[in-house]
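Hi L.,

As promised, DUF2165 domain-containing protein:
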Amino acid sequence: MTTGRTLAGAATALTATVAVHIALVAFGNITDFGTNQEFVRHVLAMDTTFEDPDLMWRAITDRTLQDAVYVAVIVWETVAALVLLAATALWLRALARRSGYGPARRLTTAGLVMLLLLFGLGFLAIGGEWFAMWQSTKWNGLQAATRNVLLAGLTLLLVQLPSPQWHGRDIH
């Protein structure tokens, strides 16, 4: 395998890994709806934080709104999983042809950015800081969000590495 094909192979493997991971996350949230529904409710309600009066005005206690946020997270995860599964198929096709990596790179980038927005912006920034999730010992998803940001971010970096192969020139 040439150096260029190794890069494309790694991009394929990592894209598939992220796709399967987020598909399983979404599947778990759909089939075990109540577990993470409680997580989202507690984070948004801020009821397991230090309950600092200067921050508690941020809390969202309306259960309908909490559940709407949770459903939106599941939909976002599901769409990201579908995008990344489609990207994996494009990577496999491009590997077989030894060319045409552009569509796979673009679709992978879109799916990975979706995950970075969800877990970086949504969980780390908004959940962690705005809703003070970092203060909760029981309902704190910062470690899981960080793992997702790390996996998506590293994959995005690999996919964005400059390579002549991406433009149809294989490296020997």
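The chain has a mean pLDDT of 95.

Thanks again for sending the construct details.

K.
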